[in-house]
Amino acid sequence: MQIAMIGLGRMGMNMVRRLLKGGHDVIAYNRTPAKTDEIVKEGAKGAYSRSDVVALLSPPRVVWIMLPAGSTVDDHVERFKEILSPGDIVVDGGNTYYKDDLRRSETLAEKGIQFMDAGVSGGIWGLEKGYCMMVGGKKEVFQRLEPIFKTLAPEEGYLYCGDVGAGHFVKMVHNGIEYGMMQAYGEGFEILEASPYASSINHGDIAHLWNRGSVVRSWLLELAEAAFRKNEKLSDILGYVEDSGEGRWTVMQAVETGVSAPVIALALMRRFRSQKRDNFSDKVVAALRREFGGHAVVGTIKK
Once rounded to an integer, what is the mean pLDDT over residues 205-216? Predict the structure, then answer.
């Protein structure tokens, strides 16, 4: 299947690679040409402007936007609206607020362009393991794009969630849960670090142990072990944890619908606090984000 990928960042580039391995015809575009040049060497067709993207695609065109949420996506949607044709499809695969999907869908519909939203989880491991995908939009459009989802996802790793916005809504809640899980791990390891047994306990060994049959075993705990093996006390990073937006949106949705979500809300508050102070539980959460998503960490200053 033919598709254009707009944005060749940490996830976009590897998604192109996975699509190429799956035999798809991929047109790649990035604001900085160097990344486009890089993926062209691996088999993609390079586009160096949005007009190039449209010219290289055969109707009905499929344009997948993999960019940071907000005004950047708005800009691309508006510009593609001007040059795409009725029947073409725009997919937003970034971490977008679902209410923005509703607005963008209406904007594109004015010209007969279809819109799909795809919540994508998998981080820097997606190329090897596949991407978990939560998809919203018209069911018939989803079915047309299913070969793409099937290639990008692991077995049974994609789901049609409902009308426009449903995919990003489910991904939003997914990330809210992620906040709470990581915070619980972080606090647990901080209690261990502050205990009378800290000198005899190795955090990497504990993480490894808990993944052998315990009820708290998980992929996040595997990543915690990997982080501790690199630096058991995480002394190379500060416990500064960014909030990507989806945690905020999840809490906002809980407030809007009257759902009690204290764990997610408090995990979000702790992220705000981490940006003012440095402690061990925040180091654990920062390290986990680096391990699963390649997110930047704030390093300590070496003297």
Answer: 98
